[in-house]
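Q: A reviewer asked whether we had any structural model of the full assembly, not just the individual parts. We don't, so I'm hoping you can provide one. Inputs are below.
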Amino acid sequence: MAKDLSVRIGSLELPNPLIAASGCFGYGLEYDEIVDLSALGGVCVKGLFMTEREGHPPPRIVETPAGMINAIGLQGIGVHRFVKEKLPLLRERGARVFVNVCGTTVDEYVEVSKVLSQAEGVSALELNISCPNIKEGGIQFGCSLVGTGAVVSAVRKATHLPVIPKLTPNVTDVPSFARAAEDAGADAVSLVNTFLAMAIDVETRRPTITNVLGGLSGPAIRPIAVRMVWECAQEVKIPIIGMGGITNARDTLEFMLAGATAVQIGTANFADPFVWSKVLAGLEDYLERHRIDRLSDLIGAFDPTPPKAVHA
Amino acid sequence: MPPIDVDATVIANRRLSRDYNVLTLSAAEVGARTRAGQFVMVRPAGMTETLLRRPFSIFEVVRDGHGTPTAITILNKRAGRTTNRLYEAEPGEHIACLGPLGRPFTPVAAPTEAVMVAGGVGLAPFATLAEALAGAGTPSTLFYGARSGQELFHLDFFERLGVTLVLATEDGSRGERGRVTQPLDRALAARTRGSTMIYACGPEPMLAAVAEVAGRHGQPCEVSVERTMGCGLGGCYSCVIKVKHGAEPAHFVRSCISGPVFDGAEIVWD
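A: Here is a predicted structure for the entire assembly that you could use as a starting point for your response.
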């Protein structure tokens, strides 16, 4: 019997929990030739401001153990060009489009959200209040409970679309930010964005990337991200979209058991753009082996009973 | 045709020097789609310390007696973890191989002449380009520079295709001592008629110099660049390079999908 992989995020029903993570999948259309965009739970496109942005000078990435540090600097085409040039094609492909909304001020988040709300074919707004790589806006809101609440409630008033702030792990207590987002009217929360990080080239004694600091992603951060999802799941009732180093079905299930309703895959897509169908097959296989019909039954199904001590 | 991901097997590993080797990979399907200047993203199976694939020009498309592709090769130079691993690779090992990717060279036909300029491992895209040019009957010359004569590879391959060779080495052990752009500049100055298309691949300072020389002599120039790349498909925005197209302001474009081959006159060099 075919397994039911669908999940719900507020009013949004996704055929499966796999969403392409913002900043890791271009505007989706880059992958059109090799990935069936309609077969993904959703496609979260690269962050958009009102206007185009150049981003940081390269080099922008460096590989680190089980991960990578990036400081792209939110290079992007701006919301108007996105709506005109990309959105119609994404709609044609049947993609469920999540747009990562950026701003340097609360007003800019609201303006970008309004443009997207008037366009046809956007499924949800993910509010980027957590990018570690830009100087103004973004993470400044995401590192303050008041700022988080201000952005979320302002956008909430300006759109009918689901509002999903993306939280930073670069704070002491992520659950309090999830709580602030929920209180301000968020429909869900995405977590986590990258961990602020740094790598030095010891031969030259210089930075490995131009921006010096960047965001760490990949399997290196996964156990911390799982912990944060689990903590937030106990703090809020709204759905959580979990992410951080997911590479396969096992990792996806780990986040879902911790309380994530859906997940995003980012860095793993760079190494293997065919990861999506492999993860879906792995989820089907797990449900088969565990005789479970609906994947959504596993959301938050983590059993905290201590593991058995293993004797040699 | 869309790129494909092949779980390729290492058929052979020919070590050319202490730093360079040529790996033959059983990626016939990639070879069948390859146009000169395109690349593959590779990752050895079992690489645990790094996650990302690495870009490599498709060096050769290996064919059987009927001309059917049976494999591809890549020219590798040890520089980091993945390239060290690829240098040590043994036949039978598996290497994921995604491609072909990127914008290829534009091969020209006679009476336009072709000039290829290679620096070090920048030789990589020119074996397939030389074959395409020879197939079209385009007269071609390869200006090839390296650190020393021991690092000039594959010369007989180009000679067999009828390519004129002009060599330069930093230590003067073979060909002219110094930069390969010196003989290039003289050759372009000595031209009397017709047009020449210049193709270049190598370190960026060399590419900038070639673009300058080409511009000074009023000849078109295509350069193949290498920037730190994350995905090869346009997803990550890591491999950007600044270009200026016509009257538009200069802006960053992704070298994986807008390149790796660019009009040399449009690049804003660092």
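A: Points you may want to mention in the reply: The domain at 7-298 of chain A is CATH 3.20.20.70 (TIM Barrel). The first helix of chain A runs from residue 78 to 92.
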